[in-house]
Amino acid sequence: MANVEAVPASEFIRNFGRYRMDAQRQAVAVSSHGRITGYFVGPDEYEAFKRFQESHQSFTTAELPEGKVCDIASTGMDSQHDHLNALLNQK
């Protein structure tokens, strides 16, 4: 989040209603002892984040079948990036 001014936790607690409404427009950064400790967001933003998280899977190369590993190893970049292919082919 770019240049978000954090609200001290004590202020956030005292004025929860205000920040609850603010969170409907944008995330509210909450700080403790000068460091951001979390963000308070509206339900729509949170649900969008959860959908994004669930739609992006990650895996390790150890989980790939051997054929896929060989396929990846045998690929190269477009010829405009031959200088990068040369770096990859150095042994």
Report on this structure:
The chain has 91 residues and is an alpha+beta fold. It has one domain: YefM-like domain (YefM-like fold, 3-Layer(aba) Sandwich), CATH 3.40.1620.10. The protein is 46% helix and 14% strand. The chain is built from 5 helices and 3 strands; from the N terminus they run E-H-H-E-E-H-H-H. A 3-stranded mixed beta sheet has the order 1-2-3. A hairpin with a 2-residue loop joins strand 2 and strand 3. The longest helix has 13 residues. It is elongated, with a radius of gyration of 23 Å. 2% of the residues are buried.
How are the SSEs placed, and which strands pair?
Elements: E1 7-8, H1 9-14, H2 16-22, E2 28-32, E3 35-40, H3 43-55, H4 66-73, H5 82-89
Parallel strand pairs: 1-2
Antiparallel strand pairs: 2-3
What is shown here, in short?
This protein has 91 residues and is an alpha+beta fold.
**Largest pleated sheet:** 3 strands, mixed
Number of strands: 3
What is the CATH-assigned architecture? 3-Layer(aba) Sandwich
Give the structural class: alpha+beta
Radius of gyration, taken over Cα atoms and rounded to an integer in Å: 23 Å
What is the CATH T-level topology? YefM-like fold
Low-confidence stretches: none
Fraction of residues in helices? 40-55%
Task: Compute the average pLDDT.
Answer: 88
Query: How many structural domains in the coordinates?
Result: 1
Beta fraction: 5-15%
Order of helices and strands: EHHEEHHH
Instruction: Report the CATH C-level class.
Output: Alpha Beta
Distance between the termini: 41 Å
How are the strands ordered across the major sheet? Answer: 1-2-3
State the helix count. Answer: 5
CATH homology superfamily: YefM-like domain
What characteristic shape results from the CA principal axes?
Answer: elongated
